[in-house]
Amino acid sequence: MGTSKVSAPHGMKHGQYALDPFLAVPFMRWAKNINSWWFALAFPILGGLVIFAAAVEGGLGSAADFQFWADLRHVRYAFGNAPANHSVPSFPLVRDFPTWIFVLVVSATCVVAHRQWQLIEECIPPVAQKGALKGIRCYPDLGYRRIHRILLLPRVVQTGLHKLEARERSVDHENAAAGGSGDEKNEIRELEALIVCVNGKIQNHSRRRSAAIAFASLLFTIIVAVLEYRSGVFQILAPSRDNAQWVKQAYVSWWAGGKAHLVGVIVYCLLIVLQIFVILMQNVVGLFCTYVVLSFSAVAELDADWLNRDGSYGWKPIARVYRTVVLTLALHGLAISVAFVWLGYENLFLIFVLVAAWVAVFFLYLILPYLVFKQVGEAAKRRRIEKLERCFPAKTIDELLFVDEAGSEIAKYQRLRDEIKEVHEAKINPLRLRPVDFSVFVLPVVLTAVQVFFSIKYGG
User: Fold this and answer.
1) How far is the C-alpha of 163 from the C-alpha of 157, rounded, in Å?
2) Less CB within 10 Å around the terminal CB: N or C of the chain?
């Protein structure tokens, strides 16, 4: 997950088409070029804080308190198999395996989010460089569709063009003063105008937006803490749904519950605030990226690199971003599952809201981009074949067979036929998932299905 820099395409200034997600978080701009694995240090740091909080208040527990498999057996009664022995309402940190899963999820989310933003910034220039994105002026039949007008894309592009013109006048003035030239041309001017305007939107009010998201994260955390105080925790392990005394004792004994564990409560709330803040910031950036994806067809032609230099016909950078989206959704689904274990069936409405939000994000960031890029391969093949057909000699192959010294023309026919065959066989799918990616893709779906099952089972 290290950083990598892409070379600018011919005639393109470095970063000309770079969408910069780091503009959304002012205090993170310093970290855009560091290795993403540095954020893995969040696991020992957060884990150390959790252990410290539990240890200073006597909530750490002993080896005998580790009951992972026993607790899994107690969960089985939700499927109609009640355990022989009741679970003991004592939850020190050693027994609280959902917390360790949550610490891992928070840390992994930080790593993936940082790497995802780096890949977003790096993805568009190499795609344009390899010719998979072509200038709109080369294809005059393109234009704004209804979806583009709903998104106010004409206004956005026009604003971006005005900004580019102002920038170019300034550069021309500086070059003239220095005795240089300002005649460099843009390859895809409309795309650059879109990126310039979107980057401006990302940066505008970024401090206020970050503060608002931090406040929303804190507010959500307070709501979760209050619900846990009122309803208890680990209800899924209670001997029965009506065992209020067991739930109360479980909350009081929990390393992050009750007045006796104030340090634990603070650290626990810090974990939730951090996770919610990162998720919300990812969604802010995700909305801007989705806007750009929906705008692609109006500002550039989605084509293919027929030299296939990256093994994905020029679209590998986009596919890498897409895979981080799959991984992010899996982490978010796992976090919701942990929340269900903590909150229980008494807070079914909040769990339903979280699952509904996850499903909405699933469609917005996974399904919608897939639908946008689904037709790229076939459209690129069709244009390529039409271009090759125009290169055929004037005479047909049958006519050339009876012409003396027509060997070169016949050879040209054969080369073009071979090329068309290769085009037909090309597998162009910008958002194609590998088998390992598909297994991660299935994980959130399974988690959501399990949560829905538990909601129906307990809610009924």
Assistant:
1) 10
2) C
Query: 90-109 pLDDT, tens per residue?
Result: 889 998 888 998 999 999 99
Same domain, 164 and 283: yes
> In terms of residue numbers, what domain contains 390?
374-429
More confident residue, 408 or 33: 33
141: tokens are 């039949």
Q: Specify whether 218 is located in the same domain as 89.
A: yes
Is residue 116 within 8 A of residue 19, CB to CB? The reply is no
This prediction has a pTM of 0.82
Count CB neighbours of 398 within 10 A. 7
The helix or strand, by DSSP H or E, that contains position 317, with its residue range, turns out to be helix 316-343
Helix and strand counts by DSSP (H, E) for the chain: 16, 2
Q: Report CA-CA distances (Å) from 437 to 57, 105, 134.
A: 42, 18, 29
CB neighbourhood size of 220 (10 A):
17
Six token digits for residue 307: 């030299």
User: Would you tell me how many other CB atoms lie within 10 Å of the CB of residue 172?
Assistant: 14
198: its two tokens: 């979107």
